[in-house]
Write a structure and sequence with these properties.
- The termini are far apart.
- By secondary structure, this protein is of the alpha/beta class.
- The chain is globular, with a radius of gyration of 23 Å.
- It has 14 helices and 22 strands.
- Strand 7 (148-152), helix 5 (158-171) and strand 8 (175-179) form a beta-alpha-beta unit.
Length: 489
C-alpha cells in the first residue's frame, strides 16, 4: 500500500490538469480518517474545457468515425487493462469509500471490466433497419451517436456506475465528460488513464472531479452537452431534469433512489435461503445500494421464525477493517453519511419500532465510519425508516397476512426500483410480480444479475435503463433517411 500513488487532477483532452482556479479538496478515507490526496476542485470553467475537448473529438470523428470493429478492439483492451490493474483499483476503491477490499476486487473491478467488454463486443452486432415502404422509396433507420454525453455518478459503486454510463456511450461513438462523486473520485480518474492507454483518443473520455453545485450543475446546464446521464438521489435527479429543460433540452436519463420491498410468503420454498438473501442484500456494501431490499414483509405465520434465523446471521456482518481479506462489512463512505444513518436509527426508536439488532456506531477508535448492521421489528408504513431511503445497513421488518394487503403496502412508496417475492406457488409469483410497480421483480432470489438485462425503476426511481442493449437507446439518435427511387422498369 505504501507504493500506491494517487493523482487527484482532472483528465481533460487526454492530459492530467489541475482546476483552472487552482482549488483542491481533501480526499479522506472512511477506513481510518487518513488523508489520501488533494483532488482538483473543478468548476464551470473546467467543465467548459472538458466539453470543448469532447466536442472537438466528436466533430473531427477521431472516435465516432472509427469502424465499430475498431472501437470494439479498443474497449476490450480497456477492459483488459482494468483487470490487469485490478488489485490497484480495488485498493483505491476501498481506501476511498470504505467497502471490503475482497468485494472491491471480485465485484466492482470485475463487473466494471465485464460491462466495458460487453458493450465493446456488442457494438458491431447492432443493426439499423430498412422500413417496409413502397417500391418507390428506400427508408433507412439508423442509430447515430448523440455527440457529447455528460455523466454524473454516485459514490457507492464508483467503477461500476461509471462503466454502466461510459461503456454504451463510448461504444456508440460519443464523447464523454464524467463527473464522479466528490466522495469517491479516485478510481474514475485512474480509469481515464487506462482508457487512454487502451487507445481511446484524447478528448473522447474526460473526467472532471468536483462538487455537485460547482461541477455537476454546470455539466447538466451546459448548452453544448447533448445528453446527461445521472445516478444518485431522487432530490438531485429532479434538479437534473429541470436543468436539462432550462438549458438546451438535452436528453436526461436518471437512475434514482429506492426503498425496495422483499416479500416472503409462508409457502416460501426455502426459508433459509430467503433469510440469507434478505440479510446479505441489505448489509452488502454497508447497505449503500439503491436497490437494497430495506423493507422486509414477512407473512405473519412465519415472521418470528424468520426473524430468529435472521438475527443468527447478523454477527457475521460485524463491521471490520475493509482492508482485511475476510471482512464482509466495511465503513460507510464518510462522517456525514454515518450521521444520516444514525439519525434514522434514532428516528426508528423514537417512532416506536423495536430495535432487535445493532443500532450503534462502532470502532470509534479507528477514526473510521462504522455502524452496526441494524434490524427493526414492529415497523409500520408511516415510520420514516419504512418510507425513506436510508442508504445504510438498516432493515425494517413488517408483518402481513394476505396477498392483496402486502401488494398494496409494497406499492405504497414513491419509489419503484426493485422488489422480490418468495413463494412456491407459481400463480402467486406471477400475479404478485405483475402487480408490483418496480423495474425489476426477483422471484425466489434477490439481486441475481446479468449484463443482458436492463436496470432501472418506475416512478421516482428514475427514467431510462442502464445495462443491456436498451442502454444504447439513451446515447443514440434515431434517424430516418428517405431515398426516392424512380424505377427504370
Amino acid at each position: 500500500m505504501s507504493d500506491l500513488q494517487f493523482d487527484g487532477r482532472a483528465v481533460i483532452g487526454g492530459q492530467r490538469v489541475g482546476a483552472v482556479s487552482g482549488a483542491t479538496f481533501v480526499c479522506l478515507s472512511p477506513v481510518d480518517g487518513r488523508v489520501l490526496t488533494e483532488v482538483a476542485r473543478c468548476s464551470g470553467a473546467d467543465i467548459d474545457r472538458a466539453v470543448v475537448a469532447a466536442r472537438s473529438a466528436f466533430d473531427d470523428r477521431r472516435w465516432c468515425g472509427q469502424a465499430p470493429a475498431q472501437r470494439k478492439r479498443v474497449l476490450i483492451r480497456f477492459a483488459e487493462l482494468l483487470l490487469k490493474h485490478g488489485d490497484e483499483l480495488a485498493l483505491i476503491e476501498t481506501l476511498d469509500m470504505g467497502k471490503p477490499v475482497q468485494y472491491a476486487r471480485k465485484v466492482d473491478v470485475n463487473s466494471a471490466a465485464n460491462c466495458i467488454r460487453w458493450y465493446g463486443e456488442a457494438v458491431d452486432k447492432v443493426y439499423g433497419e430498412v422500413a417496409p415502404t413502397a417500391d418507390t422509396a428506400l427508408a433507412l433507420i439508423t442509430h447515430e451517436p448523440m455527440g457529447v454525453v455528460g455523466a454524473i455518478v454516485p459514490w457507492n459503486y464508483p467503477m461500476i456506475m461509471a462503466a454502466w454510463k461510459i461503456a454504451p456511450a463510448l461504444a456508440a461513438g460519443n464523447s464523454v465528460v464524467l463527473k464522479p462523486s466528490e466522495k469517491s473520485p479516485l478510481t474514475a480518474l485512474r480509469m481515464a488513464d487506462l482508457a487512454l492507454e487502451a487507445g481511446i483518443p484524447a478528448g473522447v473520455f474526460n473526467v472532471v472531479p468536483g462538487f455537485g453545485p460547482e461541477a455537476g450543475a454546470p455539466l447538466a446546464l451546459h448548452m453544448d452537452v447533448d445528453c446527461i446521464a445521472f445516478t444518485g438521489s431522487t432530490r438531485v435527479g429532479k434538479q437534473i431534469h429541470v436543468m436539462a429543460g432550462q438549458s438546451n433540452l438535452k436528453r436526461a436519463w436518471t437512475e434514482l433512489g429506492g426503498k425496495s420491498p422483499n416479500i416472503v410468503f409462508a409457502d416460501c420454498p426455502d426459508l433459509d435461503q430467503a433469510v440469507k438473501a434478505a440479510i446479505h442484500s441489505i448489509f452488502f456494501n454497508q447497505g449503500q445500494s439503491c436497490n437494497a431490499p430495506s423493507r422486509l414483509y414477512v407473512q405473519a405465520g412465519i415472521k418470528e421464525r424468520f426473524l430468529e434465523k435472521a438475527l443468527a446471521l447478523v454477527p457475521g456482518y460485524a463491521p471490520a477493517n475493509p482492508l482485511l481479506a475476510d471482512t464482509v462489512m466495511g465503513a460507510l463512505v464518510d462522517p456525514a453519511q454515518m450521521d444520516t444513518v444514525l439519525r434514522y436509527i434514532e428516528s426508528g426508536k423514537a417512532q416506536g419500532a423495536r430495535l432487535v439488532a445493532g443500532g450503534e456506531q462502532v470502532l470509534r477508535e479507528t477514526g473510521g465510519c462504522y455502524v452496526q448492521p441494524t434490524i427493526f421489528d414492529d415497523v409500520n408504513r408511516d415510520m420514516a425508516i419504512a418510507r425513506e431511503e436510508i442508504f445504510g445497513p438498516v432493515l425494517s421488518v413488517l408483518a402481513f397476512t394476505d396477498t392483496a394487503e402486502v401488494v398494496r403496502e409494497a406499492n405504497a412508496s414513491v419509489y419503484g426500483l426493485q422488489a422480490a417475492v418468495w413463494t412456491r406457488d407459481l400463480n402467486k409469483a406471477h400475479g404478485v410480480a405483475r402487480a408490483l410497480r418496480a423495474g425489476t421483480v426477483h422471484v425466489n432470489q434477490y439481486d441475481e444479475d446479468d449484463m443482458t438485462v436492463p436496470f432501472g425503476g418506475f416512478r421516482q426511481s428514475g427514467v431510462g435503463r442502464d445495462k443491456s442493449l436498451h442502454a444504447f437507446d439513451k446515447y443514440t439518435e434515431t434517424k430516418t433517411t428517405w431515398i426516392r427511387i424512380d424505377s427504370p422498369l
